[in-house]
């Protein structure tokens, strides 16, 4: 069973205000805004914002796995 994609709770105006690049606007963009905000607050210290980074990377991994499952299902249909 293929999971549904995650729905971000953010608008295009908020993404513009956070200066999120177009290439990074996806299902996880609301988590990316939190990560960007945290990184700017702590001057990009690598040991800070680990929870925000883990949430964003986990969302990206879930999205990748969902797309992989869709591709496998399409391949099996052939």
UniProtKB/TrEMBL annotation:
Compartment annotation: Mitochondrion inner membrane; Mitochondrion intermembrane space
Membrane topology of this protein: Peripheral membrane protein
Source species, domain of life: Eukaryota
Family matches, as Pfam families: NDUF_B7 (PF05676)
UniProt keyword annotation of Disulfide bond present: yes
Signal peptide: none
Location (main, coarse): mitochondrion
One GO CC annotation: mitochondrial intermembrane space
Keyword Transport: yes
Keywords: Disulfide bond, Electron transport, Membrane, Mitochondrion, Mitochondrion inner membrane, Respiratory chain, Transport
Role, per record: Accessory subunit of the mitochondrial membrane respiratory chain NADH dehydrogenase (Complex I), that is believed not to be involved in catalysis. Complex I functions in the transfer of electrons from NADH to the respiratory chain. The immediate electron acceptor for the enzyme is believed to be ubiquinone.
PANTHER family, alphabetized: NADH DEHYDROGENASE [UBIQUINONE] 1 BETA SUBCOMPLEX SUBUNIT 7 (PTHR20900:SF0), NADH:UBIQUINONE OXIDOREDUCTASE B18-LIKE SUBUNIT (PTHR20900)
Family stated for the protein in its record: Belongs to the complex I NDUFB7 subunit family.
Protein name as annotated: NADH dehydrogenase [ubiquinone] 1 beta subcomplex subunit 7
Organism: Fonticula alba
């Amino acid at each position: 069973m293929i999971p549904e994609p995650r729905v971000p709770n953010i608008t295009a105006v908020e993404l513009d205000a956070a200066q999120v690049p177009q290439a990074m606007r996806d299902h996880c963009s609301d988590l990316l805004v939190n990560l960007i905000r945290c990184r700017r607050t702590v001057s990009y210290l690598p040991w800070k914002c680990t929870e925000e980074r883990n949430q964003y990377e986990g969302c990206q991994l879930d999205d990748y796995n969902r797309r992989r499952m869709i591709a496998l299902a399409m391949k099996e249909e052939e």
